[in-house]
């Protein structure tokens, strides 16, 4: 595999950006590789600047559920561009997107469009605090909710890989109100509510964790979170930035049959453009400015180009009744090949992670037992065989509708032949 051009570009990038990247995991540090520079992507494939072709299971970390460059999405974006790139004012598309979201995720009675998952979560937590007049937030170890100050406590993803327990630059006082519990461990949540019950504004959770690798919720866990928040006058926030429109058209809440008070969406909802959403119960969202006193704003929020991409993507997902079944079948095949290779993996719908530990991974501490050196070997093996996966143990493989049966069967063959 020739990666000369990527290497040259990376040297150049290092002069301008910390680690040469605009988001840390992309630097491929934990797998000790030079990042590939991408030239273009189409369907299930991604191409680097040296002309190598890969089957892509990163899918831009989730958004590309329809594959790269879906023609309807591209067409919608082109049309929107002809009308101007940003207005900073109301337009019809905002309503259309809101309707599409609400129709599929009815718990989002009122919502607001923002620009990133980080912003959506930060704003949802602020709304929860404003509504309840309480300060404390319960999050789970290994769950990632973006990089806002208060939530960078035992966060997953890049922070796990780089072993930065918390971020520098976050004053201790900013995380004083962040309480951490253990994912899938009801006792750990109960204890926090016994101690701080009257001060807890909300629980925020990835309904299926995917930022410590994929870790599905145990039977009854989400229902338990629903009940304990209700009993204590706290709100339940599902961070569905990954799971929204991924596990089902109605997100994780439909998939597991548990309804939160507030939901955050990102990734898929923007159809590949920077767009995210927070929303939920009407009475909570009515606390947000200008109706209420919880301030939140955005110059580019509701950007017409991003909105057009979101609408086109959601319409395509909505129209195709078999899509989620197909995704599930393809992911199931990948899982079978992992089993054949004797690999330990978790799968939920079209999300998969291989772990290099003998134990079943159910939370952050079991995920952390995975041998990242072995993961790095697995990663390199896949890459050398033309398969592009996330360069970190603590991420998911994403299956898209563009992955053909041929792509899947080839990938299965490669995975099933993996040996350490
Ligand atoms: C990706 C992600 C975020 C952050 O979204 P950005 O758009 O990267 O800011 C938040 N929560 C979850 C669950 C995510 O996977």
Summarize the structure in words.
- By secondary structure, the protein is of the alpha/beta class.
- The protein has two domains: 4-69 and 321-416, Aspartate Aminotransferase, domain 1 (Alpha-Beta Complex), CATH 3.90.1150.10; 71-319, Aspartate Aminotransferase, domain 2 (3-Layer(aba) Sandwich).
- Helix content is 36%, strand content 15%.
- The chain is built from 14 helices and 14 strands.
- It has helices at 4-14, 71-82, 92-104, 117-132, 158-161, 186-196, 221-231, 251-256, 282-285, 304-319, 323-340, 364-368, 372-384, 405-416; strands at 38-42, 45-48, 53-56, 110-114, 136-140, 178-181, 200-205, 235-240, 262-265, 276-280, 344-348, 351-355, 387-388, 397-398.
- It has a seven-stranded mixed sheet, sandwiched between helices. It has a four-stranded mixed sheet with strand order 1-2-3-13. Strands 11-12-14 form a three-stranded antiparallel sheet, with helices on one face.
- The protein is globular and about 55 Å long.
- Bound molecules: pyridoxal-5'-phosphate (PLP).
- Residues 116-118, 121, 144-146, 206, 211, 239, 241-242, 266, 276 line the site of pyridoxal-5'-phosphate.
Name the features.
about 425 residues; alpha/beta; Aspartate Aminotransferase, domain 1; Aspartate Aminotransferase, domain 2; seven-stranded mixed β-sheet; four-stranded mixed β-sheet; 14 strands; binds pyridoxal-5'-phosphate
Structure summary:
By secondary structure, this protein is of the alpha/beta class. The chain has helices at residues 4-14, 71-82, 92-104, 117-132, 158-161, 186-196, 221-231, 251-256, 282-285, 304-319, 323-340, 364-368, 372-384, 405-416; strands at 38-42, 45-48, 53-56, 110-114, 136-140, 178-181, 200-205, 235-240, 262-265, 276-280, 344-348, 351-355, 387-388, 397-398.
């Amino acid at each position: 595999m020739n990666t000369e051009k990527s290497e040259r570009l990376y040297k150049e990038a290092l002069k301008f950006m910390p680690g040469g990247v605009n988001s840390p995991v992309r630097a491929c540090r934990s797998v000790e590789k030079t990042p590939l520079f991408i030239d273009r992507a189409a369907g299930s494939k991604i191409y680097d600047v040296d002309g190598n072709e890969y089957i892509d299971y990163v899918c831009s970390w989730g958004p590309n559920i329809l594959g790269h460059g879906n023609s309807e999405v591209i067409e919608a974006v082109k049309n929107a561009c002809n009308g101007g790139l940003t207005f900073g004012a109301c337009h019809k598309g905002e309503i259309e997107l809101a309707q599409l979201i609400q129709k599929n995720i009815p718990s989002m009675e009122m919502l607001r469009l923002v620009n990133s998952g980080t912003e959506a979560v930060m704003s949802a937590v602020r709304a929860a605090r404003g509504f309840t007049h309480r300060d404390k937030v319960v999050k789970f170890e290994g769950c990632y909710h973006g990089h806002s100050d208060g939530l960078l406590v035992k966060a997953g993803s890049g922070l796990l890989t780089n072993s930065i327990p918390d971020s520098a630059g976050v004053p201790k006082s900013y995380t004083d109100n962040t309480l951490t519990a253990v994912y899938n461990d009801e006792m750990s949540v109960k204890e926090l509510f016994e101690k701080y019950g009257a001060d807890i504004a909300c629980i925020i959770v990835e309904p299926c964790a995917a930022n410590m690798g994929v870790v599905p919720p145990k039977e009854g866990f989400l229902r338990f979170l629903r009940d304990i928040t209700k009993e204590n006058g706290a709100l339940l926030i599902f961070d569905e930035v990954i799971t929204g429109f991924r596990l089902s058209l109605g997100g994780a809440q439909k998939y597991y049959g548990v309804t939160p008070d507030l939901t955050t969406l990102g990734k898929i909802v923007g159809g590949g453009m920077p767009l995210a959403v927070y929303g939920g119960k009407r009475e909570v969202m009515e606390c947000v400015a200008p109706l209420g006193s919880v301030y939140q704003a955005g110059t580019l929020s509701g950007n017409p180009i991003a909105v057009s991409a979101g609408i086109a993507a959601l319409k395509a997902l909505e129209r195709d009744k078999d899509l989620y079944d197909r995704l599930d079948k393809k992911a199931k095949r990948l899982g079978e090949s992992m089993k054949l290779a004797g690999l330990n993996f978790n799968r939920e719908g079209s999300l998969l992670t291989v772990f290099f530990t003998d134990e079943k991974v159910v939370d952050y501490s079991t995920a952390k037992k995975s041998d990242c050196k072995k993961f790095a070997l697995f990663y390199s093996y896949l890459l050398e065989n033309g398969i592009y996966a996330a360069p970190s143990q603590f991420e998911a493989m994403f299956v898209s509708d563009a992955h053909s049966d041929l792509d899947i069967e080839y990938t299965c063959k490669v995975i099933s032949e993996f040996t350490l």
